[in-house]
Specification:
Blueprint lengths: L4 H25 L2 E5 L5 E8 L2 E5 L7 E5 L5 E10 L4 E6 L18 E6 L6 E6 L15 E2 L12 E3 L5 E6 L8 E4 H14 L5 E2 L2 E9 L65 E10 L4 H5 L6 E5 L2 E2 L3 H9 L5 E8 L2 E8 L1 E2 L1
Antiparallel strand pairs: 1-2, 1-4, 2-3, 3-6, 4-5, 5-6, 7-8, 7-10, 9-12, 10-11, 11-12, 13-20, 14-15, 15-16, 16-17, 16-18, 18-19
């Protein structure tokens, strides 16, 4: 039997997809370089601007390394700064003038991605799929992207790109065994900006611990903050301290605040309620369960029992989100919408630095 019109159409569609991905790989390949780390490992780097390359911090030996460009030039680079939280390092490379990265316009779950690296033997690419952000159980890796692609030697520091060659994230195969993760592009570029200007990334903090509180539809607070009525997400079941995961000795409501929530969906007291186990709708806030003495939160007058509803007008729904929202705001004023004694009030907190 001969090839049908449908077969012709399918082949044509597949050919277009293949060509599109090959073009994306070539586009990304222009700004992905080889980093000679000063040790046995050879990894990749991503050019973000003239003379600036992002790579992984943990692979670098010393503060002076070499960078090999796509056209074979070998240039000396110095480490401008390292950020342990994202495992990123910014390299300054004298004489490096080449196409800089173009950030992606956004990706969706299910979109095809390319992991692009340039290990010692040249450009290498593997196909991935936007699966999800790394699950909250990964603690420090909250918010990282799962590249959905098989890691290969030297891919760390390379670029995760979309089908147009736009940067989705900076790759790292060394932070989670067998999984290729990426620091999202927006966060990576922000870290690079801070490393370039200050040589470090100040970490913002408020100095309080919170746990989620659910307001039934019949007991909704005011509507100053943008908030939907969707049921809480699974990660909102667990409470975390604003400056990192902590555990309480108590096992439920009577034993003390829950710093790290249950994963069985049965609620705070482990007996089915009151908690997030069933289908619930309504607004979510963060109840303050501890305020660190002398902290920015204490200085601003935040109190145990306050409920945080929004930061700078945007609803805040779980402690991990609070952490992410203040992490890179050190020294900046933050408008916090608080529910206190049944009344909403605005409190301005100057984010501290650790």
């Amino acid at each position: 039997m001969g090839m049908t019109n449908t077969d012709d159409m399918n082949f044509s569609d597949m050919s277009k997809i293949s060509e599109s991905l090959a073009d994306a790989a070539q586009t990304a390949g222009q700004y992905v370089v080889t980093v000679l780390t000063g040790g046995p490992a050879t990894v990749s780097g991503t050019v973000i601007a003239d003379g600036q390359v992002l790579t992984a911090a943990h692979v670098l030996h010393g503060d002076e390394v070499k960078v090999r460009t796509a056209d074979g030039r070998e240039l000396t680079a110095t480490v401008a700064g390292r950020d342990p939280s994202t495992d990123l390092a910014l390299l300054r490379v004298e004489g490096l003038t080449m196409p800089a990265v173009t950030a992606s316009n956004g990706t969706r779950v299910g979109e095809l991605l390319l992991a692009v690296g340039r290990p010692m033997h040249g450009l290498q690419v593997t196909l991935g799929l936007m699966e999800r952000a790394a699950p909250p159980e990964r603690g420090p890796l909250r918010g990282w992207l799962d590249a959905g692609a098989a890691p290969f030697r030297g891919v760390t520091g390379g670029a995760l790109v979309d089908a147009r060659g736009g940067l989705v994230g900076i790759l790292n195969a060394g932070v989670s065994r067998g999984t290729l993760l990426a620091v999202p592009a927006a966060r990576a570029l922000r870290v690079a900006e801070l490393l370039n200007t200050a040589g470090r990334v100040p970490r913002g903090y408020l100095g309080l611990a919170t746990q989620p509180v659910h307001f039934p539809e019949s007991q909704q607070p005011g509507t100053q903050a943008e908030a939907g009525s969707d049921a809480p997400k699974p990660e909102e079941r667990g409470g975390r301290g604003e400056h990192g995961p902590r555990r309480a000795t108590g096992r439920g409501e009577r034993g003390g605040p829950m710093w790290e929530g249950r994963r069985d969906g049965r609620g705070w007291n482990g007996r089915g309620g009151p908690g997030w186990g069933g289908p619930q709708r309504g607004r979510v806030g963060l109840t303050v369960v501890q305020v660190e003495a002398g902290s920015p939160a204490a200085t601003a007058g935040l109190l145990v029992g306050d409920v945080l509803l929004a930061l700078d007008g945007q609803a805040v729904r779980h402690p991990g989100e609070l952490l992410e929202r203040v992490r890179e705001r050190a020294g900046e004023p933050l408008a916090v919408l608080v529910l206190r004694g049944g009344q909403e009030t605005d409190v301005t907190v100057t984010v501290g630095e650790r």
